[in-house]
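Researcher: Go.
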Amino acid sequence: MDRNSAHLFEADRAYKKFLKSSKGLFGLKKKENLESFSEVQKRENAYNSVYIGIKEISLEKIVGSVEKYKDFNKNFVPAKDIIKQRWMSIYIGYIDENMLPPVILYKIKDSYYVYDGNHRISVAKFLNFVSIEAEVEEFLPSKDDTDEIIYRESMLFEKETGIGNVILTNPSKYKYLRNEIENYMNFLHKKKNENVDYKKAAENWNRNVFVPVKTLIKENNILKNFNGENINDLFLFILDHKYFLSKNRGENIGYLFSAIDFINMVKTNENENFDYKCLIDGEELKECCRKLKKIDRELTHLQEEIIINEKLYELIGINFDYNKILIKDIKKYDTIQKWYEDKYKKLTWHFIDKVNMLPEKYSSYLGYFKINRIFNFIIEYENVRNESSEGISEISVLNYIIEIFIPVVSFSEQKNNEWGDFGVKFLNMYEKIQKEFFYILKVRKYLLQEGKSVKYENIISDEVTRHLFSLNKSKYYDIKKILIHQKYNEFLINLKKTEDFLKIYKKYGEIRKYETFVKLFEMLDILGEKEFIKKLKTDLKKMSVSQNIVSDYKTKTVFFELDDALSEKRESISEGNSKYSFIDFYVDILFFTKNSIKDEKGNFIENIEMDIDILDMELHYSEKRNIRN
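Model: Structure:
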């Protein structure tokens, strides 16, 4: 057994021993919870605080928690098994003598309450530590009426920021809003080169962060799930959620993800139905999401990249959303203007020249294209191919003409003759069909491995396909839907008994990704039909009864829908085609784990029968996956 395996084994034994210690003889020991900081704070009217600094605090004096008082018992023994992996990782950190950061404690009188570091204190208790290093903030009991304190604080906040009617039920929390504005002002100074004062920064922050987040809260009607808190309090809850998620991931996860994920957590606690999730439909909510997405992008990109993205919009009139291929290409030039003159204009005119050399049935459609759209199409094409390491070039243009432009125009010309009065609708139709071609490119490697055609006309030529899939309202075939349906039928043919799979399929929703069926085939080959069905059924049931996992799934579906809606500028989310089933989610988790976890010898796990519980896999997935993909 290697060192890592030994540590994992020891940590697992320690965790189980700690749990057992809380049960007593025959499991009859009385369970006592930690104290709730907010309850003690209200009782003591302790809302004014002072920062004490770093202190060594006796573990005996730590009696409660700010947020996690239900997750541990009085002695900080975990009450929920879902935190096992986190507990074990901290235990290993302690026995390896790694430097762990101080915990953060709130103090009232002579008692301490954990704001950050519940798991570290839990492990320290198990290891019989006497004290722990902590960053302490003391809350002072007051005889003043709480309402008067809140009023004074809100008036002071309005005077400082210009933002009125911001009432918090906990007056000590205004400092967190001030800190947010301070950080936002620093962001404007350092990344946006905007030399604004505090009040101007507050106005900008209110418009682009505070109001959009509160609008999402309001329109999703989650206030009803809280007792006494108001919409401004919930904004702070979302800031806390953002803080903890960002800390766990080691990166800023952003306002938009934090807000949507928090709303889904609340809604899932109320109703676990997959469709009961964060609402983002309607232009007002979509505009809020656009603002938050923009701020999040700017917060997580370098100043140089922000400048490039903004300058590109000025020059070309298209938001390329920090396209990696494009930014890499532009950085090779002294200035963006030089890239625009030497590269952008050159490539767009190269496209026009080459198309003009084609037969008239192709070149005659060139007049419908705007130059900036031509360039954007080529960038989208390179993104789908994902083969360019040197940026876009004349070869990119030629490949686009051969693989996309000529076949799409050929199909469009045919439809022009069938429908009549097609010319004015050409560009819109072109973009729709181009999207279908891009999807074929995306799954091309799978189709070729399976010996299937990767040509659009061959896929839609089958009479059975034409019977099953009539033209949609935009008068083109949905290639994604066709290919997934074909794969679905192939999968059923490979099963001796289809009934069990169809029950699962009906219960957890139709698969919406071609790749999901490809991976299910792999599982079926490895496990055999009986074990495959057993694993699928067991794992999906485990996942569906976990509120954390259902909430994670809802958040991912919302972002699929949101990306589709914002990119297509639809008025309704329901018009999109980016639905994502629970089975898709499950398979993504399974294969993400397979491709990111190594065995004792340092090799990636190849066998799908890996001895890892699906709940632990999902925890790993939620912590490690790129939320912006």
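Model: Residues 493-567+576-628 form one domain.
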